[in-house]
Amino acid sequence: MTKQSVRVGLFVTCLVDLFRPSVGFAAVKLLEAAGCVVEVPAAQTCCGQPAYNSGDRADTAALARNVIAAFEGFDHVVAPSGSCAGMLKHHYPRLFDDDPAMKARAERFADKVHELVSFLVDVMEMPDQGVRWEATATYHDSCSGLRELKVREQPRALLGKVEGLTLTPLPGAETCCGFGGTFAVKYGEVSTDMVSRKCDDVAATGADLLLAGDLGCLMNIAGRFRREGKRVECRHVAEVLAGLRDVPAIGEGG
Amino acid sequence: MTVSSREKILSGIRRGLKRGPLEGSARDAVEARLADLKRNLIPARGQLDRAGQLRLFREMAEMLDATVEIVDGPDAVPAAVDGFLGRHNLPKTLRMAPHETLEALPWAEKAPLLELNRGAARVEDQAGLGMAFAGVAETGTLVFLSGGNSPATVNFLPDNHVAVLRASDIAGAYEEVWTRIRADREPGTLPRTVNLISGPSRTADIEQMLIKGAHGPRRLHIIIVPDDEAA
Amino acid sequence: MQTTSHAFKDNARKAMADVDLRTALKRVETGFTTARRKAADRLPEFEDLRDAGRDIKNHVLENLDFYLERFEERVIAQGGKVHWCSTPREARETILKLCRSVDARTATKGKSMIAEEIALNPFLEANGIEPIETDLGEYIIQLADEPPSHIIGPAVHKTKDQVSDLFLEHHWKYGRTERQTDPQALVNEAREILRQKYVDADVGITGANFLVAETGSTIIVTNEGNGDLTQMLPKMHIVIASLEKIVPTLDDMATIMRVLARSATGQEMSVYTTLSTGTRREGDLDGPEEFHVVLLDNGRSEMVGTELQELLRCIRCGACMNHCPVYHTVGGHAYGWVYPGPIGAALDPHFLGIEEARHLPSASTFCGKCEEVCPMRIPLPRIMRYWREQAFERRVGPPLERAGIRFWAFFARRPALYRLATRLAIRVLRRLAGRRGVLTALPFAGGWTDGRDLPAPEGRTFQELWKSGRRSP
């Protein structure tokens, strides 16, 4: 199998679909640069975490069946989110404990699922894109990507190749930003407290650009920065890797 | 007769495990595990050579704020104890565990001014002297077994705890100490109290500040008597 | 203990407004976590020991009945007695009866979470027996008449100044009329006052970190030495322990011991690890004449063989709360019952019912840090999710939240309809935001917009753009 024939199904994720299509296009650009043929099945909506994390197992399983059916034909399934990829990879099989045939299907599907940046590094060995981005950036490790999928070094390795970009370490980079999906709405005050501390940590690094691999965390952090009136650009790591400088940062309008 | 809580609890567990009382080969397997007393993973740090163990014991004990003194031989112990009391301006009175090894030391000759009180410790005692059954190099831990020659109160009540430890009694890991304890006893029994002591008493309950001498001894002084080649 | 778990949100709000508490929690966040990481890094076998510990506990749980019976046999053979108690009430009454059998007026107590679980102190007090906490942290909160806020640092929420005030107020009667501010002086003062209490007590009550089936021993792990003085001076030693504390052999205990203190406080080993076996022996110069183990079930046997079984591996080290970003934000009291933090979120609903405790498993971002550091590798987020499913199934919680999820899922399960609906919704949001790039208030999302803006959508959905042939932003 040559690299040209690697067929990737892009799982866009609901947040990227709704709020920031640019991240989806950045993902497509990077995947194609890595030699993949990218398709975007129309039958996708969301990975199901809002239902899953609210205890609604039946709806989650129904969503999972849709996603599996739409994506199981691809060589790989890639999502620009550690949280959604973790859901597809680690939680889908568990939804079908009482249905061995479906569970087996879910497991075969799960084997093909990857988070975008780790896929580019670990599977495709993407060649250097020669991107230039002048900024002092810091990187927040989103929880699911970090702990469920072991995404830690891959984004830092790729960002290290971006010309002009200085990556400064974020103290507490592995501490949750307080997003947690529906948590941020149900326990808004606790969540706000958590994200405020994250913003303090980011601001203390002196970086002018915050990067992460999950749009949920980024919207949380960017939203808090805007409320505090602080100007720290927040972007998905794929935007920088793909060099999408013309797109305004998250929550910056334009 | 009503069902006792004992029966209720045991049958509840068995219901959860979907079986009756453990029987046949399943029971044999568990009995065998209990009889084998197999050791689990022991860190490499607990498996050094003799010299390494002695070095590590000392290093770890000192890291825990115990003080360690290696004397020339058993006859040097009374003067070492006397010296410890003197250094800390303590009265020359000692609560001593009536352990045969300690009794055999030349107290009258080497520390004539020292007043020795035998027996269980009392609240007013300021210094206690005990004979450690073993030391564990892995964490600089002392092991004491309670008995007629070793009251546990001596290890806890006095503000100053002095322990005598034979170098040959320093083990690498806790498991070696269990083996030694089991060797002289009926299987499945222990002395009333086995104390593993790692440094002096401390607390961090006020703003996580480390304060020594919470309830147990404020000072722990370990006198090692070299009695094997490695020492 | 009176539970306030149902009021988690109010509790949390109060906690977040408490400046002293925030300082204390910051100390937990930096102090405990740094110490644990260093301790783990110093022991190359740490991760393997966690696996070994987990396997030992799993083996025990598969044979729990056998090991409990063997433990009892060994306790009896060495002069002690085991009292099996199904309920907290039975445990309380058993302890009271034992205390009365020696005409006890005071009982000293070592730190025990099970004593908190069965609310022992108020019960003893109501029955004319004075319980005296001897662990410094427990002593402080006993004076303050507060529950513990952390399972290994019950008074982590208290400041030194508050301790100074408490000591002055309560030690006046001992002739201590000077307000101490130096931490060493405060510790000394408590030490001196408690010293006589140990001697005068008729009964000493301790908890247990382990029960060893091989020898019938109960084990406590402490740093202060209070638990030892508690149990060696009075004539009766009562141990109160829950049944999952059992391990087969001393070797098994050693394995788990190696991860316990390192996970909890980052110490290589706690200062005092004490194995208590039976009563004082013939010729012994000290030690209790009576030894009783009160073995508490309180619903644990029902957890065996269920989704909750893995919780019975817990060794109460506190690592999960030490590392939990929600605990760092709201502290222990917000959880409203004995066990706070992630272990509480997973365990408390079993004791309190999901109606009372529904917030606890819900108030987690599933960041997974607790599972990452749990020495026994308990899948805490998975168990919290189990409780969320229970709550959803039983229709516990606000109907609107539930309806919202069902409403959303109705669309999410129908891709064509979903695309249509989201195309419209996104246009509306975009229009509301105007050129500001953010939305500052939204109906039904006040939880979000009260504290932060919502970044506005770029304008059209990815699906819409992709279908129209767009391949770049």
Walk me through the structure.
The complex is a heterotrimer of chains A (254), B (231) and C (473). Chain A folds into two domains: 3-122, Rossmann fold (3-Layer(aba) Sandwich), CATH 3.40.50; 131-241, Rossmann fold, CATH 3.40.50.11810. Helices cover 49% and strands 15% of the residues of chain A. Chain A has helices at residues 14-19, 21-33, 49-52, 57-71, 82-91, 100-111, 116-123, 143-149, 153-160, 183-186, 188-205, 215-228, 237-241; strands at 6-10, 36-39, 76-79, 113-115, 132-139, 163-167, 209-212, 233-236. The longest helix of chain A is centred in the C-terminal third of the chain and has 18 residues, at 188-205. Chain B is an alpha/beta fold and 231 residues long. In chain B, strand 5 (134-136) and strand 6 (141-145) form a beta hairpin. The longest helix of chain B has 14 residues, at 50-63. Chain B is elongated, with a radius of gyration of 22 Å. The N and C termini of chain B lie far apart (65 Å). Chain C has 473 residues and is an alpha/beta fold. In chain C, the strands form three sheets. Chain C has a six-stranded parallel β-sheet, with helices on both faces. A four-stranded mixed β-sheet of chain C has the order 8-5-6-9. Chain C has a two-stranded antiparallel ribbon with strand order 11-12. In chain C, helix 9 (160-171) crosses helix 10 (183-200) and helix 16 packs parallel to helix 20 (380-393). Chain C is elongated and about 95 Å long. Chains in contact: A-C, B-C. Chains B and C meet through helix 1, helix 2, helix 7, strand 9 and strand 10 of B and helix 2, helix 3, helix 4, helix 8 and helix 10 of C. Strand 9 of chain B pairs antiparallel with strand 9 of chain C, so a sheet runs across the interface.
